[in-house]
TrEMBL record:
This is Uncharacterized protein. The lineage of its organism: Eukaryota, Fungi, Dikarya, Ascomycota, Pezizomycotina. InterPro entries: Fungal_sec-metab_reg_TF. It comes from the Eukaryota.
Amino acid sequence: MPVMITAQMECILYTTILRPKSASLLKRLNTLVLAKKREYWLTIYLVMFVLLHNCAMITKRDEETATQYGHKDRYANPASVHAQHTGVQAMLAHFHFINKGVIPFSLPHNEIGRAELQRAAELDDEQVDFVWRTSDLIRDRGILVDLMEHVRERDLVGHDLFWVSFLYDEDWKPRLND
């Protein structure tokens, strides 16, 4: 697709869908987070995952646009990227400090851990299996964990896993913003 048509489509999508819906989505997410109800944990986790991944993709696109047009800055719209990264860190703070978000990933994979996870987050068997499969990917020192560490060490904020990787930190702390 020609560059101008792509830019116009992005503008139309942003102004007609993303901008009007973002405030409503964030307000609803905030309501769930502040409710501190364990039955909301999985919903909050899944929404956070999607939003964090989306932030990485937007950052990547902004970086590519800056390169494409020869900007001297890392990003075509540095103020917007800075605001997004600040917002993402606020969301991560809520996830970790208010909801103790990482706990379901650290429970032991046995009957006691399963019962605790079901009770703690009010999950059914299928949801517990999903959380356990996710935690296996994070716990096992494999390719995925190595890739997340690589991405973070090199500050590749536009990589799919950069922001998502912070969901799994047991001792998460805010990072310096660019």
